[in-house]
Amino acid sequence: MSDPRPGRRFDVQNEARSTTAPEAQAFEQHFVPVDPAPGARYQLDSLHHPLEEEAPPEQIDSALDHALARPKKRRWGLLSVLAGTLVMGGVQAVDTFQNAWFGGDWVSGAWSVLGLGVVTLAGTSLTRELVRLKRLRRHARLREDIDAHIMDTQMDGDRMQGLCNRLRLQMGLGHRDPHWQDFLRARQAHHNARETRDLFNYYVLAPRDASARRLITRMSSETALLVAISPVTLIDMGLMAWRNLRMIDRLAALYGLELGYASRLRLFRAVLANMAFAGASELATEVSMDLLSMNLASRLSGRAGQGMASGLLTARLGIRTLKMLRPLPFEDDRAPKLADLRRQLWQQMRRVDDGKADRKKAKDV
Amino acid sequence: MPLSLPGYAGDWLERSLDRQVRLAVTGLSRAGKTAFLTSLVNQLRHAGLDARLDMMNCAREGRLLGAQRQTQPDLSVPRFPYDQALAALEAMPPDWPSPTRGISELRLLIRYKSRTGSRHFLGEQRTLTLDLIDYPGEWLLDLPMLRQSYQQWCEALGTQLTGRRRRFAEGFLNRVSDLDPSATADEQQLADISAEYARSLNSARNEGGYTWVQPGRFLLPGELDGAPVLQFFPLPMEQLGDPAALAELPADSNYQTLARRFEHYKRTVIGPFYRQHFRRFDRQIVLVDVLSALNAGPDVFDDLRHAIATLMQSFDYGSRSLLSRLFNPRIDRLAIAATKADHVTPEQHDNLLSLVQALMAEPLRDLRYADVPVKSLSLAAIRATQARTVEHDGKRHPALKGTTESGEEVLMFPGEVPSRLPDADFWQRQGFDFTAFKPAPQGAGEALPHIRMDSALDWLLGDKLR
Description:
The complex is a heterodimer.
Chain A (H helix, E strand, L loop, with lengths): L11 H19 L32 H6 L4 H31 L2 H45 L6 H15 L6 H9 L6 H37 L3 H23 L5 H32 L3 H30 L12 H27 L1
Chain B lengths: L4 H12 L3 E8 L5 H13 L11 H4 L3 E7 L11 H9 L13 E10 L5 H4 L2 E10 L2 H4 L9 H11 L3 H5 L1 H7 L10 H20 L30 H4 L2 H5 L6 H25 L4 E6 L1 H7 L1 H14 L10 H6 L5 E6 L10 H11 L1 H9 L4 E5 L7 E7 L2 E10 L4 E4 L11 H6 L7 E2 L14 H9 L5
Parallel strand pairs in B: 1-4, 1-5, 5-6, 6-7
Antiparallel strand pairs in B: 2-3, 3-4, 8-9, 9-10, 9-11
């Protein structure tokens, strides 16, 4: 008899239990019960941990990080297929060569020699690529170390010095290098990680920055001059590509850190953009000169302007490369600015111009 | 102050060009003010030669040419005894400079090469005038009294006289309990109780290690010894009673006599000291000796915190303009230094730093509100020890090598510094025992070894040495 008859009375104590129990069951069927009841207390000495926070996904921000991240698996697959094909091709070539040698088939023999030559060439480039990749991975690890610890104030100074030492080796500086010796003299036992980093920045990296800056100015003014002088669009573009790529390589050599695939690609795209600009501006100057039938002076100044712009673009590329390459970020006010380089570039071009004028004067006399 | 008009005008010109800086070296007694000043002069004298100032931009760029001591503007104030301090450090065996017993001044001319754009028409070589004063740290504690009345002062001291500290004041409390504030003053009785009070302050200072002892002149009376201006003392709160009734007591009553002497002390002793030396500062470095306070125990530690927080209210902080530079100078940049950093191993410096920041949390909040840039650093003006590592049980442990105060040469690990204010539990469980060291032997004419003097100088003066 589960249904209560009308007018039936329950006593208060029983009521609570008897009516809530089936309700609670129904409740539990529909809802998953929350495990600890509200207000539940635990023993103070029971095992407890700090609330674990989910680590934020590691974001790869800077271009260099992209560049130095581990190469993708896809690339390794491609490489192994490539290597396999090359080896098989080599074996096949040797086989054909042997057959030809013993068979006296000179024509196919010559073909085989050629094929072997190609295999050797590909092999060397492949090994070079592999070596580079390996080195890049080492850089990546170093870079990870630096990124993880460079801003870490908890790290002690000695470990930071170890990190700096690795950077020094990477740059190809000997132990006797005067800048490194300056750094060692300056660093004291009590210096913490931040101070050690600051000293390394000042004593070892700053001189490199100065020479990098000089290099950028020199090469961009060269580019400016060459582009200004050359009258052919194709030559302009070629010059731009050649000088820009060379500058990137030389800057990389200066800091001892090679650029990775992605940042190389990114810089290469910038080089292509510069080339396009050089070509387009050359064409535009050319056309406008014909259209507006300018005199010689305005033609010259038009050319000079085009050269100057190319030089500036090169300088900008240089600064970008510098920022990607530098193992430590620049301090606030120490980063090279395009404005400084522009002034230097302008002075250099003026000097060349003056020199030309002087020579001309001398010739006239 | 006998100042000639041209000299005064010259000072003004220098100030308007912002080539004159008054640096406040603030610290309670034994915090290392004299050592700091000695080292500062020494480092700047040796800059560019054998001083290692690698964290100081101007020095490492080779633009700092050196410094020279000059006759200070106020000829009635003794000169800072730099040579004596250096002689003590270079003696065999070396010793710390003797504690300061009176006020002294120092004017330093710092020569440097400018790299700003204006060097082309203003000349490359510039001079920065640095004014420094040294004073007994005990006197500094009087500054907060300027804002108190006698009654407020009695109440403030009464709340402090608790726990362990009360022990040192036992003799004084016994004597003063017989004194009736409304009775007619008896000169001899007041003098006796004052002497007893001075004794209690001395023992709290020397035996208990307490820093907060007022009035400071009782410890170092100088030429005022025995003068009635130093014959007053706080009355315990139980004896004070109703303020309105006290105010109506006759002028020759004990209470009124004491209150009068207190006001006189404020007016003639603290006032001039404050006006002549403690206003018109541009930069400040606060030296805090945390390690000694940790050694002494929890209540001394709290005492130090209270003392510093109260002290900092006596200075003007805020950003500066040309007008305020000339007429109402304010401290626009501040360094907080945990001194004697050489008494702990280098990996403890970070802890030392966060402890000092925790100790000064309250003043730091006010400074942030005033938008005054503050940098805290762990510092040793004169480095007495060498940091080493010791192989022990196949592991490497940090250690210090130095000579203790008793002359014994040791290689030891002094202990860990807590990174936060230690709680009561910690004091009971562990406590601290940091060893005091003597300065290391030092070749005559060499630059003094230091820890982060260069960082401190760069922070305090770097922007003036561009």
